Amino acid sequence: MSEDGETARVWCDGCYDMVHFGHANSLRQAKAMGKYLVVGVHTDEEITMHKGPPVFNEQERYRMVRAIKWVDEVVEGAPYVTTLETLDKYDCDFCVHGDDITMTADGTDTYHIVKNAGRYKECKRTQGVSTTNLVGRMLMLSKEHLQRGDREYAVDRRCSQDMSSDPSTKSPWTGVSQFLPTTSKILQFSNRTEPKKTDKVVYVAGAFDLFHIGHLDFLEKAKELGTYLIVGLHTDPVVNRYKGFNYPIMNIHERTLSVLAYRCVDEVVIGAPYAVTKEMMDHFNVAVVCHGQTPVSEDLGGTDPYAEPKQQGKFVTVDSGNTLTTEILVERILARRFDYEERNRKKEAKEAAAYEAFVKSKQEQS
Ligand code: CTP
Ligand code: C5P
C-alpha cells in the first residue's frame, strides 16, 4: 500500500447503471488521485434490493465501465457496502466517491466503514446528471410531449428542472440543478492529441444520444478499421429533425462528454454536418467512413448523407452485433415507467430525509 498520491491504487464502486458522463467524471477525478484505478460494480441482485431494478444488466454495466478511459480494472459483483477487506483484497489505498450520500435499503451510509478508517476521499459530483435524472427525462418525454405536443416546454424543463413530481421529496443531490458545460470540462475529457501522419483515420457520425452498449460495440468495431477514431455529433436540431418527438434526450454538450469518456474515441466533432462532405474528409484526412446497420435518414432534399464517401470508395457498413438503439432503450424504460417513477420518488425522499437530519445535527452542534 502507498500513501503517495503518485503511486496510490484507488478504489471506486457503484451501480454505474446507464453509465453517463457524471460517472465518467467521478472516475476521471479518482484516477487523478492515484496511479491505478480499480472500479467495483454491483450485481443486479444487490442493486434491485437496495435501489430498485437497474436499466442495464450486470454484464452490460461491467463492459461499459471497463471501456472508460480512466479505468484500469473492473471488479465484478463488488459488495454494496464498501469494506476494508475489499480495499485490502485489491490492494487499494483508499476509496473515492462523489460528495453525495449513498445509502442501503435500511438507510445506512454505504461508506461508513471506510470513512471511519480514514480510507475515504471525496470527488465533486457532477451536477445535473444522474441515472434518476435521465430516467426522469425519458418519462417526461412521453408525458410532456405526447400530452401537450409542446416541444419547447419539455426542452426547457429538461434543462432546469428537478424531475420529481412531488416537491416534498426534493433531494439536494439527485433532484436539483443543471449541468453547466464549460470548455475546461471538455479539455479534461479530451485526449488532446491530433492524428499523426501515419494514422489511419476512421470517421463516424450520429446522435449518440444516451450513450449505450450498442454505441460502444459499434465504435469499438469501427476503431478496428483504423488507428484514430473521430466521432461527429449532429447538433440537437438536426437530431430532432431525423429522430422526431423530443429527441435528443441529452444535449450536444452532454453527448460530447459521454462519447469522449470512452477509450476507443480519439476526437469528437461537436456539431458535425449531416452530410459527410469532401471538405471534411480532406480536412481530417479520413480513410474510412462507417455507419452501423441502423437505417440512414435522408438529408434535406432527399440526398444520401454518405454519397461522398461512397463515391470515394471509403464507406463501410459495420455490424455492431448489437440491436439496442436509443429508442429501444427509452421504450424499455417507459414499459416499466411506474416502477421507475416509484424508484425515483423513493430515492429522492430518502436523500431528502438524510439531508434534513444532517442539517439538524449541524444546527444542534452550533
Ligand atoms: N456520480 C457523480 N456525479 C453524478 C452521478 C454519479 O460523481 N452526477 C458518482 C457517484 O458519486 C459515485 C459514482 O458516480 O461516486 C457511482 O455512482 P452510482 O453508484 O452509479 O450512483 P448514482 O449514479 O449516483 O445513482 P443515481 O444516478 O441513480 O442517482
Ligand atoms: O442512432 P445513432 O445516431 O446514435 O447511432 C450512431 C451510430 O451507431 C450509427 O452508425 C448506428 O448505425 C450505430 N449503431 C450500431 N449498433 C447499435 C446502435 C447504433 O451500429 N446497436
Mind sketching the topology for me?
Blueprint: E1 9-14, H1 21-32, E2 36-41, H2 44-50, H3 58-66, E3 73-76, H4 84-89, E4 94-98, H5 112-116, E5 120-123, H6 131-148, H7 151-160, H8 183-189, E6 201-206, H9 213-223, E7 228-233, H10 236-243, H11 252-260, E8 267-270, H12 278-283, E9 286-291, H13 307-311, E10 315-317, H14 326-335, H15 337-365
Parallel strand pairs: 1-2, 1-4, 2-3, 4-5, 6-7, 6-9, 7-8, 9-10
CATH class categorisation of the largest domain: Alpha Beta
By DSSP (H or I, 4+ residues per run), the number of helices equals 15
> Percent of residues in helical segments?
40-55%
What's the quaternary structure here? single chain
Distinct compounds present: cytidine-5'-triphosphate, cytidine-5'-monophosphate
Span between termini? 38 Å
Low-confidence stretches: 142-169
Q: Can you tell me the CATH topology of the largest domain?
A: Rossmann fold
- The geometry reads as globular
Mean pLDDT: 87
Spell out the key features of this protein.
366 residues; alpha/beta; Rossmann fold; 5-stranded parallel sheet; 15 helices; globular; binds cytidine-5'-triphosphate; binds cytidine-5'-monophosphate
